Amino acid sequence: MVLFFKIVPQNNMGLVETLGKYRKSVPSGLHFYMPLVQSIKRVNLAMNPLKLPNYSVITKDNADVSASVTLNYHVTDAVKYQYENTDSVESMAQLVRGHLRDIIGRLDLNQALGATAQINQELAKAIGDLTNTYGINVDRINIDELTPSKAIQEAMDKQLTADRERVATIAQAEGEAKSIELTTKAKNDALMATARAQADATKTRADAEKYRIDTIQTGLKEADDKYFQNQSINAFSDLAKSDTNTIVISSDKVASLGQIPVIGKLLQSGDNH
Q1: Residue 147 and residue 124 in contact, taking contact as beta carbons nearer than 8 Å
Q2: Secondary structure letter of residue 9 according to DSSP
Q3: pLDDT tens, position by position, for the chain (273 residues)?
Q4: Best CA proximity match to 132, nearest among 93, 80, 97
Q5: Mapping DSSP to helix (H, G, I), strand (E, B) and coil, where does residue 34 land?
Q6: Inter-residue contact 77 to 22 (CB < 8 Å)
Q7: Which of 96, 124, 168, 192 has the maximum number of C-beta atoms within 10 A of its C-beta?
Q8: What is the C-alpha separation between 248 and 35, in angstroms, rounded?
């Protein structure tokens, strides 16, 4: 009997078929089989990366979004992977796309664009057990990009520009309002300071005048007859030096004024004339 041998590499599983029917699984290593009657198929058990082609999904608010997804998977059951599905990898990819459409279809555009991490978690949870039927386990799944359609992107750009202009206009208006407020406050403060200074000056002058009057009044209260006689002498002396030749004096004051020698002489001089 002639035997052939085949080496199953590490991280691979060998599936032995006899007359086209699965017979047993063999691990990595050297294995013998009968040619023409038997064959050994190798199934890779190592982790494999897979990038799904971009495809369109529709959000809850009917926005068209292009999704880009990458994932890592490995075969957990070589028999299921090889015999229970004609293309387990494509079946897995269809499952991922279907669940992603369902998840994003329950979100608005803004929610979907800002929640890729949450979508990744929900997607991994949704397909976790289902892929076991294909003998595959998805180790990691990631949405690389969610891109709105060109028309939606242009509308979003216009909206973003409008929002920026609105914010800039509001900021400028607030700045101008603040400037006016500060200028008005400065002017009011200056007016109030000027008013206070004027009030203080007026009060100071009033206090000085009051002090002068009070001082005079106090002096007058303490003055005796000699002070008033002296004042009268000074007054008559000033009159004598002037061109005035007529003096009107109350009759009851003449006698008392005549007792002052200087004034008496002035009065006598006036009588002689």
Answers
A1: no
A2: P
A3: 678 888 999 999 999 999 989 899 999 899 888 888 889 999 999 999 999 888 888 888 888 888 889 999 999 899 989 888 888 888 888 888 888 999 988 888 888 888 888 888 888 888 877 777 888 888 888 888 888 877 777 666 677 667 777 877 888 888 888 888 888 888 888 888 888 888 888 888 888 888 888 887 777 676 666 665 666 666 666 666 666 555 555 555 555 555 555 455 555 554 445
A4: 80
A5: coil
A6: no
A7: 96
A8: 167
CB 78 within 8 A of CB 13: yes
DSSP 130: G
Read off the tokens for 163.
């929002």
- Residues in the chain, total: 273
Task: Please say whether the beta carbons of 88 and 138 come within 8 A.
Answer: no
Q: Is the dihedral of CA 132, 137, 143, 144 positive or negative?
A: negative
Residues 101, 107, 109, 114: is their CA dihedral positive or negative? negative
Rounded distance between C-alpha atoms, residue 268 and residue 259, angstroms:
12
